[in-house]
Amino acid sequence: MKKVFTMLLVFLMVMSCFSNVNVQAESDISLKIGDYIEFGKYLDTPITWRVIDNNSDGILLISDKILCLKAFCAQSPNNKYGSSEFSESTLRTWLNSDAYSIDYAELSEYVPNKRNVEYNAYVGEEGFLHYFTSHEKNLINEITLDNLRTKVFMLSQNELDQYLSKSLFNQGYAYPTPEAVKNSEYVVKDTEYCDYWIREKFDAGVYIMRGRKEGSTTRQPKNGRIGVRPALYLSVTSDDISSGSGSEVSPYIIDRKDVKTPSNKEKKSKIMLRFDKKEVALNVNEIIQLKVKGASKNDKITWKSSDKLIAIVDNLGNVKGIRPGIAKIYASCRGSKVFCYVEVKEN
């Protein structure tokens, strides 16, 4: 009996060792340069990234394709081209925000509305990180760029040359996503390479990676015909990877984790308001009605103007221009609050 017990004990110890080896093997996923990772969402579509480096800041990723076309920075009354400093740019603000509505006017003099950018105004659009889950945002490492803590950025010229000048990354050339093409006022094709911003200024301009010609050149920051290809540093373990092999057809998929289907009660109690227009213009003494989507007929919308000396609004969303200037008209209901820029012009 003692011999049988000893043999059983040895067997269990051996099996335990094998079990530990298997767990260890499964937990050690080594990400390689060039691997594909699916992480986060933009325009309701999962984002595919490429691993381009692994250093003390984390795993460096860049989006596999150009996600959208946007101005680097809007122009302002004091800068007719827009800032060429990444730290001041409206693009940096957008990339690093998870807000439903970004109040650019509260942050700086640069507001990316239709008057201040050439094509693809993005005032009123959710921040880039808005549709990332809390878990996903926690996986992104902050780094210091231009003395500011930053999570999402564009590559510099040196980084572009160092990481993307290989055939593995198509020498840095990139296509826009179908969603980028669909949502751009400027016509591009998802079958053709597209220019995109890099984090490098030159006088009043900013360098871009050219899509149709070799090398880089500069463009005015307010140019909204240029693509955005974000980069970020990631901290990830095997526990965060739900599936995939890292290939183009089977990317590693980062588990979103805290995504949950809301209950019927939660669906009824929460709404998400949205203006039918991101910005409007009217003349002094002219009246227009703003409309919001997302509320039911029985919901009561609360309206408010940020500056009643420029524009006023009644409880039905009718806005009247008082004097030239720009004001924000707020609409709120059941915990959701949005705003629309209103520009009042002289008759």
From TrEMBL:
Residues 60-235 form the DUF6273 domain. Residues 1-23 form the signal peptide. Keywords: Signal. PROSITE patterns: PROKAR_LIPOPROTEIN (PS51257). It comes from the Bacteria. Residues 274-331 form the BIG2 domain. Pfam families: Big_2, DUF6273. The keyword Metal-binding does not apply. InterPro entries: Big_2 (IPR003343), DUF6273 (IPR046240), Invasin/intimin_cell_adhesion (IPR008964). This is BIG2 domain-containing protein. It comes from Anaeromicropila herbilytica. The lineage of its organism: Bacteria, Bacillati, Bacillota, Clostridia, Lachnospirales.
